[in-house]
Each structure stands twice: as structure tokens, then as C-alpha cells.
Amino acid sequence: MSIMLKIVNIFTVFGILYAGNADAGAEPLKTQLQKAPGKTVKKIADDITRYGIAPMDYERFKKQELVNIDLEKIRGRAYGNDKAIHSLIVFTDFSCGKSKKADAILKKRVMENKGKLALYYVLFPLDEACNPNLRGRGRLSDKSCVYARTALCAEKHGKFNETVSLLFNGEAKDIEKDCVNSEWASKKLAEENALYKNIAIRGTPTVLLDKRRIGSVYKFGSKFNGLLRFMDVDFNRIIKKQ
């Protein structure tokens, strides 16, 4: 069996041919290999063995448009090392089941890359009553606005991260009750809306790695961590040139 077929078969068995990641615009590995000149197939195989992903996947990731969001405004919400060189940013709704599942996976990715990766939350309530980005889409959850305000009030008292788990588990009833209904909370939520005013967010969770969209790649440890390894090699190469 050829090297190309071996690689394709291995990745087909495990069902991780870029996880059908339409957001990142990547072709399946099989297509990538078929298009590659014969002499580069072994190089691709070596890169997959070393990094966990094909180099073309990384190149496509690098071509993703940078999302213009001010990380400093959410720096205090970091899960992990807030001085880490890599950032995961998740647009989330604490009443969203998919966001809850993503949260557990994203935290796992942070723990796998201790010290060099941090997770940051952007509050994206799925209710147009408190999120003008959803204008015309109505209310997708009747808890979204309350949970978002609760998180902001918890952040005010330095308890953001511990409140995240409570909110996702529906255990945050009456937390910060006085603050949640205050003018201050409404103002802070409006400021949160302004963070993504000009960013097209289709729903939650939406995940960024170093401010570039990664679709569902974060769900697969080998692919995600391989992406980070490629990024680190690129970073070190740039540093050496300076």
C-alpha cells in the first residue's frame, strides 16, 4: 500500500479529516494528498507524524481573516495563564447546551498546553433583547440575558471563572441578584455587545485561536495541538530571523 493510501486510511478510520471544518475552508486530507506532487507526499506524511495535521491545513488556518476583538478588555476572564502566547476566545451563551460541551473541551485543551494557552470568554447572549447582533432573530433562550448579567456581576467581584461553571450547570439562581437587575449590569452588557459589533457571529459557541476562526478543530486534541506546534515552529522561525 502506498504512503498516501496508508495516511488516508488511518485518518478515515479515526474520522478526523479536518472534522468537516467548513469555517476554516480546508479540504479533506485525501484531496490534499491527491493534489500534492508525488515527491511531497512523504514530507506530508512526516509532518502529520510530527505535528498531527497536514501543512496545508495550517496554511489555510493562517489565511483566515483576523477577528478584530480587544483581548485586553476580557483579560481578567482568563482560564489558564493570562500571559500565555496563545489565546482561545469563545463567544458563548451560558444557557446554550453546545456552549457547555465546548467549555469542557476547551478547558481540556488549555490543560494539555499549560502555560502557553489561555481561554477567554466573550458573552454572546442568544436573545435580541440584550444582544443587538441578533436583531430579527428573536429570543433563543429566556435565560441568556440574566446569565450574561450574572457573569458580569460576578466578574465585578473577581468571581467570573467560578461562576462560569455554576451558570453552565444551571446552579446560579439568585447569585448577584441585586446587581443583575441594576443599571450598571445593563451598561456593562451594552459594552460587551460593542466588543463584537462589527463581527459576524452566527451562533454559540464560536471559537477563535489567536483571533482566527478554527471551526470544530478544537474538539480533536491531536489536530488542535498539532496546529499549536506548527504555530510555535513558525513563531520561533520569525524570532530567529530578527
Outline the fold blueprint:
Elements: H1 3-14, H2 29-35, H3 38-51, H4 55-62, E1 79-80, E2 86-92, H5 97-112, E3 117-123, H6 144-156, H7 160-168, H8 177-180, H9 183-195, E4 206-209, E5 212-213, H10 221-241
Parallel strand pairs: 2-3
Antiparallel strand pairs: 1-3, 2-4, 4-5
Helix pairs in contact: 1-2, 6-7, 6-9
Please explain how this structure is put together.
By secondary structure, this protein is α+β, with helices and mostly antiparallel strands. It folds into two domains: 3-64 and 216-241, no CATH class; 71-213, 3-Layer(aba) Sandwich (Glutaredoxin), CATH 3.40.30. The protein has ten helices and five strands, in the order ααααββαβααααββα. It has a five-stranded mixed sheet with strand order 1-3-2-4-5, with helices on both faces. A hairpin with a 2-residue loop joins strand 4 and strand 5. Helix 6 crosses helix 9. The N and C termini lie far apart (44 Å).
Short description:
The chain has 2 domains: 3-64 and 216-241, no CATH class; 71-213, Glutaredoxin (3-Layer(aba) Sandwich), CATH 3.40.30.
What descriptors fit this protein?
10 helices, 5 strands, disordered C terminus, 2 domains, 242 residues, single chain, disordered N terminus, Glutaredoxin, alpha+beta, 5-stranded mixed sheet, 48% helix
